[in-house]
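job 3f2a | input accepted
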Amino acid sequence: MNPGIRGGRARRSPVRSISLADEPMDRRGFMGACAGALLGLSLAGCASLVARRVTSVDGRIELALAHYPELSAPGGSLRILADERADPIYVLAQGDGAFTALSPICTHLGCTVDIQGVRLVCPCHGSTYDRTGLVLQGPAERPLARYATRLTSDGVLTIDLRSRT
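job 3f2a | predicted structure (165 res):
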């Protein structure tokens, strides 16, 4: 005997399948689907804003590059947040084996710049910086603050938080 049949009758599932061919979607269903899609897209976009928490020891952060594939290719970037700091740090792969660690705080009025390909752009007033922090377009007049970096032969990137320039 089939377990889904009791007393000769098929048991109906409490779950109703949804098909666009069954009936047209009403306004409420459409708005719900749009809200769900918008929420999904916005959460996906927020993933790029997440800073990875790291621990600093004696004013230094050490990143084993094997654990950060975002930095393995030229143009790669990583947003980190050291345990004692309020503002994140952008770590940018320059492509020649060099790395730059920058404060993302715009020197014009203190907004947080966004990484947009080969540039960092302030969403507040349009100041634009290159990936080393130099000003390409104002109103900012000073470069982004930089932290000294050093790459060891075993692939550990050290960022010195005490050497902000």
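job 3f2a | The mean pLDDT is 80.
job 3f2a | closed
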